[in-house]
Design goal:
The complex is a heterodimer of chains A (227) and B (270). Helices cover 78% and strands 0% of the residues of chain A. By secondary structure, chain A is mainly α. Chain A is rod-shaped and about 130 Å long. Chain B contains four helices and 19 strands. Classes of the chains: A mainly alpha (227), B alpha/beta (270).
């Protein structure tokens, strides 16, 4: 039995109109709930006072007017209750934050354990979901980003190209021809990928090809800078 | 006898011979001799210049040996044989070329680049290696063909920096990498469970010949849209306007990546 139901039944209890079963249930609740017991005692005292002083009251001068004032007050309170009911409810978060939290030690411990469990589960699920099959990020490039990245790579490539040029005179003519021919092939691949990306900045195949071509070019230059 | 001799002498001293002898005497010896010597020296040097040096060495090894060969220019041929030893043969175009193979534990390292630092252009060095069947090979050259056949080792890597065909025949290895810039790549072998296979060329055809029951996950990319999966095609493949195919063949137990910028990618069934 909850307190609201209990306080509804307290009147019947004091009037003696309650069934035995309800009376037993109500008394059980009153023994456990100090608030309801307090309400019962107040009501009982009021009733006792009224019964003991019956006939001792003077009739009010204008009972009709009194009744109207009481009625107005009751109706005004009822209207306030409706307005409060229509007022926007606090958000869950505001309600949660506004609430005063008074937790016992076991409740606090349980809460902490629940958080630890939740974090562990999320971690395990995350590792199983993404750990074995790493998600291959498919970058969504934008033209400006691509050009910027290509420019940065080009700086590194230029450095290695200068180193290659220093040693090139030592190579055989056949080796020089081979190197130049292959560099042209890679450059063509870079240009083609770049043109494709300028047309469609979200084309991940062209971006993959551009990256690989630039890597190949860098690797070629590094290898031949040693020669 | 004397008479015959005198007759012969008389014959030798015939007018024609006399004339020639006198002509020779007339010509200055000092002028002819240096020319003759120079000619002889030039012939000797030129023949030495074109003569190829040959190196052949044998190395006792175990069954699971690793061979690392870094060449500058020239072909590399690797074959297996039924012996626990490596036979290395090298033909060097230039007499300046220097090769010092190093054997360490279960590996043999040949680094032409390192061995000839500061010696200038050493020309082509063509290698032929006979190795145990279970060998792993890591082969590199700046220019030249690479051919590997009949190996069942842990890994095969063939890298040509510029141009040169790569031919891998009858290979069973858990890890295979073949890459060049210009040239064809041919792989004939099997994909091992859990193995990784990477084939990449900028300008050349890539052909992969494998058994019909091969199981692998494939990522094949060719901006030129020249990808022919043949009998390995299935409806599970996802394609991006024919330039890239991603999908599983069988249960996809091995991982295969094929990238070709402007050539053809072809899968053939054995």
């Amino acid at each position: 039995m909850n307190c609201e139901k209990c306080q509804e039944l307290i009147h019947d209890l004091l009037d003696g109109t309650l069934s035995r079963a309800d009376e037993f249930t109500l008394n059980t609740h009153l023994r456990e709930c100090l608030d309801c017991e307090s309400v019962r005692q107040d009501l009982s005292a009021i009733l006792g006072f009224c019964q003991s002083h019956r006939g001792e009251y003077e009739t009010p001068p204008n009972p009709q007017a009194l009744w109207l004032r009481i009625r107005n007050v009751v109706e005004a309170e009822a209207a306030n209750v409706k307005v409060k009911a229509k007022a926007p409810r606090k958000s869950f978060l505001a309600d949660l934050l506004g609430r005063s939290w008074e937790l016992s030690l076991p409740q606090l411990a349980s809460f902490a354990v629940a958080i630890v469990l939740l974090v562990s589960i999320v971690t395990v699920v995350g590792i199983r979901r993404f750990g074995n099959n790493p998600v291959v990020e498919q970058p969504q490039p934008q033209a400006s980003n691509i050009n910027e990245r290509v420019f940065q790579r080009q700086q590194v490539i230029n450095y290695w190209k200068q180193r290659v040029e220093l040693n090139k005179s030592r190579w055989s003519p056949e080796m020089r021809d081979t190197f130049d021919r292959n560099l042209q092939v890679i450059d063509a691949a870079v240009t083609q990928s770049l043109n494709e990306l300028n047309r469609n900045p979200h084309d991940d195949i062209s971006e993959q090809m551009l990256n690989e071509s630039l890597n190949d070019k860098l690797a070629l230059l590094k290898e031949f800078s040693d020669l | 006898m004397c008479k015959d001799s005198s007759r012969r002498f008389i014959f030798l001293k015939s007018p024609l011979v006399m004339k020639a002898t006198s002509l020779f005497r007339l010509t200055s010896v000092r002028r002819v001799l240096p020319c003759a010597v120079a000619t002889v020296i030039a012939v000797c040097f030129s023949s030495a210049g074109f003569a190829q040096q040959h190196l052949s060495k044998r190395f006792q090894t175990g069954k699971n040996v690793r061979i690392e060969l870094k060449n500058i220019s020239g072909t590399i041929v690797v074959e297996s044989w039924n012996k626990d030893e490596i036979r290395l043969s090298a033909t060097m175009e230039s007499p300046n070329a220097h090769i010092v193979p190093k054997q360490m534990d279960e590996s043999l390292i040949v680094d032409v680049m390192n061995d000839n630092r500061g010696r200038g252009d050493v020309g082509d060095v063509n290698f032929k290696l006979q190795v145990p069947v279970s060998s792993s090979v890591d082969l590199e050259t700046r220019r030249g063909q690479i051919s590997v056949s009949n190996l069942r080792g842990a890994s095969v890597r063939a890298h040509v920096s510029t141009e040169g065909d790569i031919e891998l025949t009858n290979i069973t290895a858990a890890q295979v990498v073949a890459q060049n810039t210009i040239g064809n790549i041919f792989f004939d072998g099997e994909f091992s469970t859990g193995g990784t296979y990477e084939f990449k060329s900028t300008k050349g055809d890539i052909t992969i010949r494998i058994p019909g029951n091969s199981a692998f996950r494939l990522v094949a990319a060719s901006p030129a849209r020249k990808i022919a999966l043949g009998e390995f095609w299935n409806n599970g493949f996802k394609t991006q306007d024919g330039r890239r195919y991603v999908g599983d063949v069988g249960d996809g137990r091995s991982s295969v990546s094929v990238t070709n910028f402007s050539g053809q990618i072809t899968f053939l069934r054995k």
